[in-house]
Amino acid sequence: SSDDIEDVSLFDADDDVSRRSKKSKIRHPVASFFHLFFRVSAIVVYLLCELLTSSFIACMVTIILLLSCDFWAVKNVTGRLMVGLRWWNQVDDDGRSHWVFEARKVSAQGGKTSSEAESRIFWLGLITCPMIWVIFAFSALFSFKVKWLAVVVMGVVLQGANLYGYIRCKVGSRKNLTSMATNYLGKQFLRQTMATEDQAAS
Lowest mean pLDDT: which of 6-10, 86-90, 185-189, 197-201? Predict the structure, then answer.
């Protein structure tokens, strides 16, 4: 009968939807913008500088300034805000230099986890742009544009350093990398075994 039917709110479903919307939402739009702005601007200036001006010095200084701003912003600001990673160098009292690679620990409530959209923007910009500078380096080398080679090498070094630092933060030490690989292979083996058993049962 119609009296037996009552409306029930699906709290779990609502929580899932809100969690998904939080994950896909960009929480740091300014950081996300500047994460891409400096590095993309440096590439655009490199490509268009001969059309815009005939002064090599002006182009070189502009590109190196943009690359330097990008290096500082990505290393000190956007990495911490967008993905919760940071790396730096510290010197002990003995004068020995140590590289430190850190990843933010996820809280029990998951309140400080980075959004998926920001994470995609961060890693896409971090990986794609150094690859473009490597292509520019080969292009300058094979076309004998020796004067541009120094600028391109600066792009490869500065953006490659950030890429290396954040990969080390994400992956961790070699021990962590080995355990991650072992866990991944174990999970794949378990899935394959379960799939085989399901096929045999059916």
Answer: 6-10
Q: What is the distance between the alpha carbons of residues 91 and 85, in angstroms, rounded to a whole number?
A: 20
Q: Which of 187, 96, 167 is nearest to 127 (CA)?
A: 167
The angle that helices 146-171 and 56-73 make with each other, rounded to 10 degrees, is 0
C-alpha span between 161 and 81 (Å, rounded): 19
**For residue range 29-68, what is the model confidence (pLDDT) as tens digits?**
999 999 999 999 999 999 998 888 888 899 999 999 999 9
| Domain ranges across the chain | 29-83+113-201
Q: Please say whether the beta carbons of 117 and 25 come within 8 A.
A: yes
53 by DSSP, 3-state: which? coil
Token readout for 48 is 């268009």
Q: What's the predicted TM-score (pTM) here?
A: 0.69
Three-state DSSP class for residue 47: helix
pLDDT category of residue 12 using cuts at 50, 70 and 90: very low
What DSSP character marks residue 80?
I
Contacts of 43 (CB under 8 A, 6+ apart): 129, 132, 133
Phi, psi of 161 (to 5 degrees): -65, -45
Residue 87, pLDDT > 80, answer: yes
| C-alpha to C-alpha distance for 166 and 83, rounded to whole angstroms | 10
Nearest to 120 by CA among 41, 181, 180, 32: 32
